[in-house]
């Protein structure tokens, strides 16, 4: 069994992206977006994604729509949909996300978005 105190793990990570668990069909990732930062506009052609927000405030931009997000919010992003998530608050925007199928290499850790961009992810 894999058990995660996910809100605590996400809050304590501080990394832009940290893959916590990878299965054959899904993947769990914690993310922290710094103030003024964003995930960056992207599309996962064959991957559905759910993002659950733990703390901070931001804006979800999915499929041409924008909506504020904060603690307790969950956003679904269907495969093939353009999306971005932007931190609009004074502190970190902390979330965890589930990809189906997995999107990143198992064990991936990117401390910053720049590091993730350099890695091509």
From TrEMBL:
Pfam families attached to this UniProt entry: Cupin_2
Signal peptide location: none
Tree of life domain: Bacteria
Residue ranges occupied by any Cupin type-2 domain in the UniProt entry: 31-99
Annotated segments matching region Disordered: 102-121
InterPro entries: Cupin_2, Flavonoid_dioxygenase-like, RmlC-like_jellyroll, RmlC_Cupin_sf
Biased composition regions of type Basic and acidic residues, renumbered to the chain: 103-121
Name of the protein: Cupin domain-containing protein
């Amino acid at each position: 069994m894999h058990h995660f105190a996910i809100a605590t793990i996400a809050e304590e990570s501080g990394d832009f992206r940290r893959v916590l668990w990878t299965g054959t069909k899904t993947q769990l990732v914690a993310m922290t977006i710094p103030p003024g930062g964003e995930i960056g506009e992207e599309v996962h052609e064959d991957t559905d994604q759910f993002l659950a927000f733990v703390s901070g405030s931001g804006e979800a931009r999915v499929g041409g729509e924008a909506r504020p997000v904060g603690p307790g919010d969950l956003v679904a992003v269907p495969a093939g949909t353009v999306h971005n998530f932007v931190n609009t608050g004074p502190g970190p925007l902390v979330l965890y996300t589930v990809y189906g199928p997995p999107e990143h290499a198992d064990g991936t850790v990117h401390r910053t978005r720049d590091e993730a961009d350099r890695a091509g992810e």
